Amino acid sequence: MPALPLDDAGPYVAGAYLVFLALVLAYVAIMAVRQSRIQQEVDEIARLLEQRDGGA
Amino acid sequence: MRPTFGRGLKTLSIASAVILTAAFAMVFFYAPNDADQGFIQKIFYLHVPLAIVALCGFVAGGIYGLKHLRSGDRAHDLRSYVAIHQALILGVGALATGSIWARAAWGHWWVWDEPTLVSFLIVFLLFACYQPLRFSIEDPERQARYAAVFAVVGGAFVPLNFMAVRLAESLTHPRVLSTTGGAMPGSMRITFLLSLVAMAILFITLCKYELSAKSTRIQLRGMRRRLAGEDDGLALGRSAAPQQV
Amino acid sequence: MRSAAAAIIRKDLRLELRTWETLPAMAIFAVVCFVLFHFALDRETVEGDLAAGVLWMTLLFAAVLAINRLFVAEREQGGFDGFLMAPVDRFSLFLAKATVLLVFLVALEAIAVPAFVVLLLGPGPGQALPELLGVLLLADLGIAVVGTLVGALAVQTRARDLIVPLLALPLMIPVVIAAAQATAPLLLEGGAEPLVGRWLIVLALYDVVFGLLAFALFDFLLED
Lengths: 56, 245, 224
Hints:
Helix content of chain A is about 90%, strand content about 0%. Chain A contains 1 helix and no strands. Chain B is mainly α. Chain B contains 7 helices and no strands. The interface between A and B is medium-sized, with 28 and 35 residues.
């Protein structure tokens, strides 16, 4: 028999799932934003390098 | 030829989102309530996959470490680092959910009776030293090499530790984690397997995310240096993460 | 390989005999630990489980002291470079250092175990001496192998004294488990119970696995 009555423990379990989902979604969102920003920088620098190397 | 790590990322993300949702739906709508533990037992569909995938992540970190030692390829070192890093994060989740289960089943936030939980804590503590170890070695090549040696030792340690702890606990405390043993009805087993698959795919997706982010940043740094000229004075600060691929 | 290892062993032991850097510190530390345990546990004597626990924790922490010092001379005085230039198998350094650590551990136990018997142990000393010695030896082998590996890993880092306990102690948990479980029945008040063979097997397995790992990995730690 569970030590905590079901109505006490239930919220913990449900909470665990929700926290898990929230963390995963937050991580993915942050990574997506960061990735797009870095990709922008990479493209810009590639363009600058091309200009410089193409001109020189 | 610099390896690209971001291949197939979009497909993987969508796949993991779909399977994870399906698994959770099954947990809450399909799997029956356990006979004696009731609703609380559902934490297992989160806790056990987290723990299993984390342990596999640690072992994978060890395997990539071995590959790095044999080939000297820094890409393997990056993979090893990311695998261990993500496994540690999942490990925190496994310990937290394990604690919730202990609290629900026995009223304590931690129990020593459960050998799998205890041996998981030990492995977690060991791999938690991975990043401080890397940070304390400045030379990047040596850092990669020593980290790889440590990862291999840690990966080999996982089964040994598991066995030793189980031997120790089984003498005085009978095994309690029997709900995931043979007595599981079919519907529970399917739900569990699906959760396991979902967690594994999620782990791979997360690893790929981190791999692609890190390798892109490494590329970016290389390009900035080229832009600024050869001797740019851009000092690479000390870091625990691999700086080169 | 053996002559190279023997040469290094001779050098280290001679160094220790001349300077007495490590061993007295380990011995004093062990005795201090026993005193601390007396106060921390608030007991006159310990027996059984508690005795095994006190003994093994003390030995483990004293071993960490030795591991910290194991490669320091090589590191600070260019011994690594000298060794790498010599045409010897690199694993001989591991063999030498592990043997030295083993010798230190055995010497420590020659002092610490009698001290433990006098200070804290309830049951008589001769109770199960051969079995106890057997367990000590097997566990010492494991500690020596893992300790040397971790010592070599840690000596090149900046936070050597921190890294050694952080890495070595979790890795040695199986040794503690097996050794404590094996020792506990030997130290019971009512007369020693026979030794449980399974723990000796666990210790031997541990020694073999980590010995093989060390053999495979040690060379990578010495590359420059």
